[in-house]
Amino acid sequence: MTKNLIPWAVIGTLIVAVTTHGADNWLQFRGPDGRSGSTARTPEKFGGEDALNIAWQQKTAGRGVGGPLVIDGLVVVTGSGGEDERDIYVEAFDAENGVLAWRRTAHALGRPFTHPTSANASPTPVSDGERIFALYSSCDLICVDVQGGLQWYRALAVDYPKTGNDVSMSSSPAVIDGVVLVQLENQGDSYVLALDAKTGENLWRKDRPRRANWASPLAFRLPDGAAAFAIQNDESLQVLRARDGEVISEFTVAASTVSSSVYVSPRLYVPAGGLTAFDFSSERPEIAFENSRMQTRNASHVVAGERIYACKGSVLVAANLKDGEVVWQQRVPEIESVWATPVVTATGIYVFDQNGNVTLVRDVVDGDQAKAEVIGSSKIEGPVLASPAVSGNALFIRTENAILKVASPN
Amino acid sequence: MLQLLRRASLLFFCVASASFWVAQGAAAAEGVDEISIVKGVGESGVGHRAAQEAMLRIRKQGPSMLIPVLESMRNATPISKNWLRMLAADLSDDAPLPRDELTLFFEDRQQDPDARYLVYRWLTDSDEELQASVLERSTDDPSLPLRFLANRRLMEQAAATAEVEKETAIALYQRVLKDARNPDQLQRTVTALAELGQTVDLAKELGMFQRWYLIGPFDSTAGAGFATPYAPEQALLESQGADFDPTRSEAGKSADVTWQIATTSDALGSLDLNPIFANEKEAVVYAFCRFTAQEVGELEARLGSTNGNKLWVNGQLITANEVYHTGGRVDQYMGSCAINKGENWVLVKICQNDQTEAWAQEYQFQFRITDSMGKPIACTITTPAEK
Questions:
Q1: CA distance A213 to chain B (A)
Q2: Nearest-Cα residue of chain A relative to residue B328
Q3: Which B residues in the span 268-307 are in contact with A, Cβ-Cβ below 8 Å?
Q4: Which of B212, B382, B376 is closest to B300 using CA atoms?
Q5: How far apart are CA B362 and CA A39, in angstroms?
Q6: In which band, very low, low, confident or very high, does the pLDDT at B181 lie, cut at 50, 70 and 90?
Q7: Distance CA B368, CA B300 (A)
Q8: Residue B174, Cβ neighbours under 10 Å: how many?
Q9: Do B382 and B290 meet the contact criterion of CB atoms below 8 Å apart?
Q10: Residue B41, helix vs strand vs coil
Q11: C or N terminus of chain A, fewer CB within 10 Å?
């Protein structure tokens, strides 16, 4: 007899994550705590010609590869379109029925050019529960409230004119304790910038190496409660105090410039040399373990319960969160090029590929042996490069031109 | 008594009406003041707090502020226009769209092109029939985003008819060629016309500069050349373009170098430096020419390059980009420039880095001058002279 390992473990570790905002909110890239996990029981199979379990689908105003947010019953997505994708959008749909609640449009003032598979709307927006901060590859940054009311707008490519990367500036913003952080690393004006969430004014700014970097900053709380941001590139990992940018810790490490880090107190799991775990339980953080087998390709690591998962394209690898020991490795059928970070629910691990193929894998225990069980595959009309959101018992999937809700009718 | 009451009622009505309109007028005037505060937002967060407070007061006045906000986009800065766009959207959410007023606003081509484009989106997003009829007559609209959509529609129509009605397709593509300002659209149109047997010199249509004096390579080891003003740069900038001697030798990266004439027949006017400079890496090359223009005044200099670059027009630095191999395209870097009657000059500095990847080998640039709407300005290259 096999037992699904995920639900109980996920429930155990996600309790903390839902204390700040409603359990149904998904406020940033990879969800409430950045682990891309949820306790929701989502459908095993969906899509296809008969649109199985597709509760609704809406065309978005523009293209987008950033993930959706779910805030107080609204699904929020960004998009870009028009000439050179200079029309940039933030729009909100009623999570229940998909009806458009509001749409805001601006004109990109930075370089909107990207690789054809990406879009100007490539970063996932972030929310503090009251406001939504939507960043674009063109370095335009829009802040609206949950009703769509403009709070402020910054044209960062006007303030720092050499910022840009025509592949795409895809690093997603992060927010904690009233501080919004954008990490805009490229060959021109390269920096991290902290802004006041209420006013959009600069709080602090640090120059960064002038090289392309797509990894996103991570907002988290250190064991002593201090709000911090982890930022990484191919030569270092830095932990910065949120309020003033002071460097709390720094490690010389070749971290990924695509995949981002994940934090499970007191450890920061960094995509470097495969996977490197840094333990922050003491004043002098140290490396807890390294495992080169946990290398990711484009997606970021995902944490659920006692497990951490790495997606290497069509191969999924599971390891123990505690010691990094690999417990299974599974080739994922139907899956080719993966950009979206997988999402884990009580149903299993959903792996999305660029073409809209989705394979559900379950982490099970068979006797004493942990193993992967491929549950089945689904197909939606892609492309899908954005990591999905989970709210209630639904998945919200941002395809290139649409947003759709996957939920069982019952 | 009755008459007295009537008079009193009339008096009351007049006073009330006057008060109402005075109040409305005062509110409108106050609203305009508040809008000007929003228009005052600047770079780097300047004016945010005042603008936030002003927006609160404008929202309190409700949907009546929608048209004034749209009208205020005229002469607004690009940054404040984005504030006004989103403020207008806030206001439009508070009541049914005043379609008649908005239609009048859209039809007035004297209104701000960006405000009109926003209104176009509101009016047509859920009305495909209206969208088609507006686009049909917008291929030369002052709003460039709208013009882009209108010409895209024409191109789709042309493509759909190309196989069965060739002459109709050609006529539609010719219309795009006349009205479109987007280089990608023009390029695709020329390709489509070629497939229909019509030859168009795209580089000429785009107004690309196709003849240059070049000198190089100069050393750019470790990228240092980008910030190093080599002799040609120094001489031309210090003399305001006067000190140009095509026979003069300068110390180059590994040998003395002299100016040479290069031309391009590339469809997009791109000048490929690799065959001229033997695929030199870590190098700087300068391109220079003098020209006369059919229009003068404040125009736009537009450079495309996948390499590090600096551009001067008549000695004024227009743009400087220490960016390598992240993509290159027509009009990648743009800036306003003053073009004079008579002769003008342009100096382009193009830097190659040390990247060895196959996708990082391009060494090229393209240049043109347009008006603010992207219309190419016909220029005649006087130096180097045409042989």
A1: 12
A2: A166
A3: none
A4: B376
A5: 50
A6: confident
A7: 8
A8: 15
A9: yes
A10: coil
A11: C
Q: Is the ipTM of this complex over 0.90?
A: yes
Distances (CA, A) of B82 to A105, A159, B88, B374: 8, 15, 10, 21
Closest CA to A349 of A391, A386, A307: A307
Q: What is the C-alpha R_g of chain B? A: 28
Q: Give per-residue pLDDT as tens, B302-336.
A: 999 999 999 999 999 999 988 888 777 788 888 99
Percent of chain B with pLDDT over 70: 92
Among the partner residues B48, B145, B323, nearest to A201 by beta-carbon distance: B48
CA distance B313 to B214: 16
pLDDT, averaged across chain A: 93
Closest residue of chain A to B324, computed from CA coordinates: A187
Position of tokens 């927010």?
Answer: A175
Axis crossing angle, helix B144-161 with helix B113-124, rounded to the nearest 10: 50
**Interface contact A191, partner B, CB < 8 A:** no
pLDDT of residue A387: 96
Closest CA to B347 of B250, B215, B251: B215
Q: Does A212 touch chain B (CB under 8 A)?
A: yes
Phi, psi of A322 (to 5 degrees): -70, -45
B89 vs A104, A109, A111: nearest CB: A104
Share of chain B above pLDDT 90, in %: 79
Sequential DSSP letters for B55-112: HHHHHHHGGGGHHHHHHTTTT--HHHHHHHHHHHHHHHHTS---HHHHHHHHH-TTS-
Helix H or strand E encompassing A291: strand A286-291
> CA dist A189 to B34, B64, B332, Å?
34, 42, 17
Place of tokens 């190419």: B376
Cα dist from A86 to A13, A115, B28, whole Å: 41, 15, 32
Please report where in the chains the tokens 């395809």 appear, as a residue: A399
What's the per-residue H, E or C state across A115-155? CCCCCCCCCCCEECCCEEEEECCCCEEEEEECCCCEEEEEE
Each residue's pLDDT tens digit, B352-385: 999 888 888 999 999 999 998 889 999 999 999 9
Inter-chain contact B45–A154, Cβ cutoff 8 Å? yes
DSSP conformation class of A42: -
CA dihedral for B289, B348, A111, A353, sign (positive or negative): positive
Helices B183-195 and B166-179: angle between axes, nearest 10 degrees: 160
Provide the CA B24 distance to its chain's centre, in angstroms.
39
